[in-house]
Amino acid sequence: MTPVASRPASRDELSALPVEVAPLLLGALLETVVAGERVVVRLTEVEAYHGLGTGDRPDPGSHARMGPTARNATMWGEPGHLYVYLSHGIHSCVNVVCGPEGVAGGVLLRGAEVIEGEAVAGRRRLERRGAVRSARDLARGPGRLGDAVGLRHPVHDGTDAVTGAEHAGARARLLLPAEPVARVATGPRVGVAGIAGTAAFPWRFWIEGDATVSTFRWGRGAAEAGGA
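The structure corresponding to this sequence follows.
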């Protein structure tokens, strides 16, 4: 595979609103080393989420929509840390915290291509979820991506992807593409309930035509609220 030209992300670059940062993460690399095992993924699909008081309108789909809690504390912290939360009681999902410290926001990493450490990612997926249908499915969807890179809730919540400092036996680094990717598409977020999952919030960004982008589905009541 042709190497991807990239450079380390800085806090300043991640201090803008999540909806502004999100498309810039397409084509970025997330490198993790967990228990000595290295995996690198290339991000192909992301979603922006704003917390209470972030941006010009409330985001009812955000974990931080009601303000700070024990669960979402990382979202209110320094940009560049990883907010790792548990979805449906089983899936560890990874977000890049964006916005100035004290202003909640994050970008959910929804889909990626595994470009290094495919055997490690495949073993993790097999151990946690069973058979993997194809290489494109290793990190296709936020739960699969979390499995592939080895970051788990709650122990790895707060990992710093700017400095790469060790946190609970894991290291992570975010590397931005040297050049923006072409063919960026945008639309409603996947599986988000109500108005937050409609075209009123076109805050999902993906690389058009990439095989590792997850399948779109409406959230509960989203189609009725204006999605279709």
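The longest helix spans residues 118-129.
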